[in-house]
Design goal:
This protein is of the alpha/beta class. The protein has 7 helices and 5 strands, in the order H-E-H-E-H-E-H-H-E-H-E-H. A 3-stranded parallel β-sheet has the order 3-4-5, covered by helices on one side. Strands 1-2 form a two-stranded parallel sheet.
Length: 167
């Protein structure tokens, strides 16, 4: 997505030697791969956060994980709260378990401003993901877990600006 592309661009510019992109969206991966001109520092994994075994394989030899996978559309959550839970909550549990097993050093969950006093299934599921992530910290063992909240960005995927322009 929008954030993933920006992060990859920034990390490559800062000299990262290897970046693994893990996503279930093969079309977006293909587009991104072409945009980055098949940069040899990039590794591509098709998978879903709902699959803990695949996550763990993708995390092999990785030191840091940025977990941004989520179902994000408010109206999707209203009619499909169970799917929000499967991806946003259970998927986060899978990331935590896979990262712990793979001995990852640092894990950052990208959450949402909608997790503050949540009213929608989306906000509630992201608030739960935040709690799970922060509570996974164990000072003696395992990864260091942190959370950052990401708000609306003008022009990003799902931004209201294209809707306004077409009106």
């Amino acid at each position: 997505g929008f954030l993933g592309r920006a992060l990859v661009q920034k990390l490559l510019a800062e000299g990262s030697e290897r970046i693994c992109i893990y996503s279930r969206n093969e079309y977006n991966q293909a587009t991104m791969r072409a945009d980055f001109k098949d940069d040899p520092r990039l590794r591509w994994f098709i998978g879903d956060v709902r699959d803990v075994d695949r996550l763990q394989r993708a995390m092999d030899s990785v030191d840091s994980v940025i977990h941004a996978a989520a179902l994000k559309r408010i109206e999707v959550g209203q009619y499909n709260p169970d799917e929000m839970v499967k991806t946003n909550v259970l998927g986060t549990i899978n990331v935590i378990q896979a990262a712990s097993r793979a001995r990852i050093e640092k894990v950052l969950l990208v959450s949402s401003d909608k997790a503050y006093e949540p009213k929608s299934p989306y906000g509630q599921s992201k608030a739960m993901a935040e709690s799970l992530t922060l509570n996974a910290n164990d000072p003696q063992y395992g990864p260091r877990f942190a959370v950052v909240r990401y708000g609306n960005v003008a022009g990003s995927t799902g931004s209201v600006i294209p809707t306004w322009r077409s009106a």
